[in-house]
Write a structure and sequence with these properties.
- About 80% of the residues lie in helices and about 0% in strands.
- It starts with a helix and ends with a helix.
- The protein has two domains: about 1-30; about 35-89.
- It has four helices and no strands.
- It is mainly α.
- This is Vacuolar protein sorting-associated protein 55.
- It comes from Heterodermia speciosa.
Length: about 90
């Protein structure tokens, strides 16, 4: 149990350092377009969260809300892949 918590803490620390380095490099070179990568990663979980809230978990048919959830996952994956693509440019 403690190993999983330590892993989450280390991964969040690495993510925070990565965001900090992107922001500092933007400020150093006065080129703020790489902040779009940070914005994309921050906005990426929103479609998944919104679509999971919009689906009705109390429906008697399991597959009725799955299209909405799948669309949210698709949009989230698209934003993550777009962030990776913008980061490589």
């Amino acid at each position: 149990m403690a190993a999983g918590l330590k892993t989450i803490i280390v991964l969040s620390f690495i993510l925070a350092i990565g965001f900090l380095l992107v922001i500092l490099s933007c400020a150093l070179w006065h080129e703020y377009l790489p902040l779009l990568v940070v914005a994309t990663y921050v906005l990426a979980p929103l479609p998944n969260w919104i679509c999971s809230r919009c689906s009705n978990p109390d429906d008697f048919m399991e597959s009725a809300g799955s299209a909405v959830v799948d669309f949210g996952r698709f949009c989230t994956a698209f934003l993550v892949v777009m962030g990776i693509g913008m980061h490589t440019l």
